Amino acid sequence: MKSHTQKEMDTQLIFLLCISLLHFRPPATTAATATNATGGIETDQIALLALKSNIKQDPQGVMGSWNESLDFCQWQGVTCGLRHRRVTILDLSSRGLVGSLSPFIGNLSFLEEIILRNNTIKGEIPPEIGRLFRLQILWLSYDSLEGEIPANISLCSNLVLLSLRNNMLVGKIPIELASLSKLKTLIIDFNNFTGGIPPFFGNLTSLKTLSASSIAFGGSIPDSLGRLENLLFLFLGGNELSGMIHPSIYNLSLITYLSLNDNQLQGSLPQNFGLAFSHLQNLQLWGNQFTGSIPDSISNASQLEHIEMQGNNFTGKVSVNFRGLHGLLFINLACNNLGSGEADDMSFLASMANCTNLEHLALSQNQFGGSLPSFVANFSTQFQQLVIGRNQISGNFPSWIGTLVNLNVLAMNY
Ligand SMILES: *[C@@H]1O[C@H](CO)[C@@H](O)[C@H](O)[C@H]1NC(C)=O
Ligand SMILES: *[C@@H]1O[C@H](CO)[C@@H](O)[C@H](O)[C@H]1NC(C)=O
Ligand SMILES: *[C@@H]1O[C@H](CO)[C@@H](O)[C@H](O)[C@H]1NC(C)=O
Ligand SMILES: *[C@@H]1O[C@H](CO)[C@@H](O)[C@H](O)[C@H]1NC(C)=O
Ligand SMILES: *[C@@H]1O[C@H](CO)[C@@H](O)[C@H](O)[C@H]1NC(C)=O
Ligand SMILES: *[C@@H]1O[C@H](CO)[C@@H](O)[C@H](O)[C@H]1NC(C)=O
Ligand SMILES: *[C@@H]1O[C@H](CO)[C@@H](O)[C@H](O)[C@H]1NC(C)=O
Ligand SMILES: *[C@@H]1O[C@H](CO)[C@@H](O)[C@H](O)[C@H]1NC(C)=O
Ligand SMILES: *[C@@H]1O[C@H](CO)[C@@H](O)[C@H](O)[C@H]1NC(C)=O
Ligand SMILES: *[C@@H]1O[C@H](CO)[C@@H](O)[C@H](O)[C@H]1NC(C)=O
Ligand SMILES: *[C@@H]1O[C@H](CO)[C@@H](O)[C@H](O)[C@H]1NC(C)=O
Ligand SMILES: *[C@@H]1O[C@H](CO)[C@@H](O)[C@H](O)[C@H]1NC(C)=O
């Protein structure tokens, strides 16, 4: 990397020398030195043309402007630095491009951002990208990339965002990536890696977003993830993860979106769940094998908007006080073993009186008994879906349901 920096500095130096030499030397010689001076620029042009030649379909004609009659800094999708006239950003997202990524991309040594998301870029990620030590953003999601993630990407030590969502990548996620200490966003969902969620992710301590749903099958949640104390978004759904949530995970005190759905996780949630995750806005635990009660402390996560805990084996009376959850939009506790069959099973609904944004409430297929509270004062006017069938609820049809003017689904066949 040092030699790279050195090379660029040398190029600049020669460029400066040339400007002064111009006054003294005959034109023939200046032409020769000028070629040297602009060497980096020529390399960029050669590299861009190599990239173009690997694109086989360009339905929007984006690369029509990529010809030598126009300065390449003006080619569509290309941004150059003002000082060096070297390519700093390559942004060709959503252009319908079909092709592969030329290894020449590794010669665009001033690149800071590569954004090729949502095209049909096939083939492997060229390891030459590892030569781009200025690279901060590598955004290749929704393409058709194959093969393994090249370990050389770990040489892009300034990388802040790496997104490879929705490709066809396979193999082990290279452990070398553990050195990407500036990485804030890692998005690798919907690929076909082996080896489960790698424990070295816990070394990426700058991470704010770790999005790794449906990437690999099996294993458990590595306890090392508890070291990611800056983490705001954690998505690990659809990975067939088993075992319990390790206590270290409850150290992720800033987490706002926790998605562990559609795995085979077991065990009960600790009583202090909502205190540990007091910034939670979106909780996705559906489709696991969790047991035990819904912790009352959920009410302490006062910014909660979505709660989806359906399809587990949660048991017992729901005694959460929803009074403080003013932002609640969506709550699904269906398909568990909740309720005691007692007369006051549904009384927690009364505490939802001030959840004025609530749109969806599902409690079906549980063991709830008793009757619905006769009033839920000022239940949300936004309310759209009430799904409470397949329980043991009895009693009169409460009149407040008739006041839900926006209701479009009412399932309460009990
Ligand atoms: C400049 O380019 C010429 C011809 O390609 C080469 O002979 C010469 O060594 C180069 N000079 C420098 C300083 O790189
Ligand atoms: C080169 O690009 C310019 C700008 O888009 C265009 O006007 C011109 O026709 C192109 N030339 C060739 C030979 O494709
Ligand atoms: C993906 O690109 C296509 C054009 O090729 C565009 O129509 C579509 O909106 C893009 N999708 C996203 C999610 O950006
Ligand atoms: C650029 O990269 C390619 C492939 O990685 C290489 O063959 C080529 O010699 C490099 N240099 C220049 C100046 O294009
Ligand atoms: C990958 O990195 C190694 C050094 O770690 C280097 O020797 C090798 O040339 C790099 N590969 C490419 C294709 O740049
Ligand atoms: C991913 O792996 C599964 C199981 O090995 C296989 O059925 C599926 O086709 C693979 N998908 C891709 C995109 O490679
Ligand atoms: C991860 O961090 C731990 C503790 O700092 C260290 O011992 C380990 O070597 C690191 N792992 C990798 C793959 O860098
Ligand atoms: C949680 O973090 C505290 C310090 O913030 C640390 O002492 C403790 O060991 C961590 N717990 C786990 C289980 O990692
Ligand atoms: C947690 O919520 C309960 C019930 O809403 C409340 O009584 C308690 O004071 C809250 N605790 C904290 C630490 O906010
Ligand atoms: C749910 O838990 C109960 C005991 O609490 C157990 O009898 C039942 O088999 C469990 N159901 C499932 C589907 O795991
Ligand atoms: C709803 O809010 C009002 C006003 O803030 C308060 O007086 C009332 O006790 C609340 N009701 C419930 C059930 O939390
Ligand atoms: C319900 O709304 C009415 C006005 O629409 C208001 O007078 C009453 O205080 C509210 N009740 C509660 C418990 O917030």
Automatic annotation (TrEMBL):
A cellular-component GO term for this protein: membrane
Signal peptide: 1-31
Start and end residues of each Leucine-rich repeat-containing N-terminal plant-type domain: 43-80
Membrane topology of the entry: Single-pass membrane protein
Keyword Ion transport carried by entry: no
Localization (cell): Membrane
Span of domain Disease resistance R13L4/SHOC-2-like LRR: 128-309
Keyword Repeat in record: yes
Alphabetical keyword list: Leucine-rich repeat, Membrane, Repeat, Signal, Transmembrane, Transmembrane helix
Xref: PANTHER family: DNA DAMAGE-REPAIR/TOLERATION PROTEIN DRT100, L DOMAIN-LIKE PROTEIN
Stated name of the protein: Leucine-rich repeat-containing N-terminal plant-type domain-containing protein
